[in-house]
């Protein structure tokens, strides 16, 4: 049996305010081509199908089209929710969806009940473990004494192994889980799952199964031959600029895990970073290659440029993030009480302008500030 391990689709997510839905649908629709070309039997999504618990109608429609393409290419689909998903909403009509080959494993109380699919060598049990928030999960599992992510996920895997042990000899197993496993490397785009405790679980938690298809971390990673993160299909932060986005093609034979191969995904728009003074960035030909990338720009002008983002986007239409780090650094920031002590309102306002852009206000700007302060006070400007 061939399994395509994916996770963290985050359909509906924006990138620094830019809508990514078209890019997401283009990349994810390409999974159907992999299913067809590599004769994939089952595609799994290990959490965070959507970016929000209540996704937009457009995100739901795009995701539905992608899943339909994958199904039409010949694969069954197994999905479990992540920390961004609403498990009850994702699992709605799950019993009916299963009839069409879409298996939604969203219930904590049934995490030990696998989806059973078969190949020429017999059954393969797919166990979908929904994202387990420790506090509600320990009660849903009927064991309020459990503590933390390690406790609830350890109990979930104990139940999985118990069910697997009771099945016919030769039954192979795949576990879908959305968790932060020790040894994994985070990026800037994952939402933290640490709520009053340690978010990590040990890798040995997943011992005893043929393959653990992990989700949550957005970079593709191998923690052990049978324990991997597929990562997100698109980059969702500039910290992922060097990621090679991909999915894992997992092959199971009669004896269990036979091999895992990487399948790289297309990059709809590259990420880039630029640093320098605004005038140079807007004119130097060396930056021509950056015009079609999503850009994070750091300006080093001594004085903060006016209307910098608009001006940058005239040359770099996909510049989405801007920071200002003046060459030589900025003046030391004083405590508020020190900054205002013994100063008039006009002096405080002028000091604020200077701190904000690293240059004193001009005489005309000082005049505008005096007019504004006078208007607030109900007086005529001096």
UniProtKB/TrEMBL annotation:
GO terms for biological process: DNA recombination; DNA replication. Keywords: DNA recombination, DNA replication, Endonuclease, Exonuclease, Hydrolase, Nuclease. Residues 1-219 form the Calcineurin-like phosphoesterase domain. Residues 268-349 form the Nuclease SbcCD subunit D C-terminal domain. Gene3D superfamilies: 3.60.21.10. InterPro entries: Calcineurin-like_PHP, DNA_Repair-Maintenance_Comp, Metallo-depent_PP-like, Mre11_N, SbcD, SbcD_C. PANTHER family: COMPONENT OF ATP-DEPENDENT DSDNA EXONUCLEASE, NUCLEASE SBCCD SUBUNIT D. Belongs to the SbcD family. SbcCD cleaves DNA hairpin structures. These structures can inhibit DNA replication and are intermediates in certain DNA recombination reactions. The complex acts as a 3'->5' double strand exonuclease that can open hairpins. It also has a 5' single-strand endonuclease activity. This is Nuclease SbcCD subunit D. It comes from Actinokineospora iranica. The gene is sbcD.
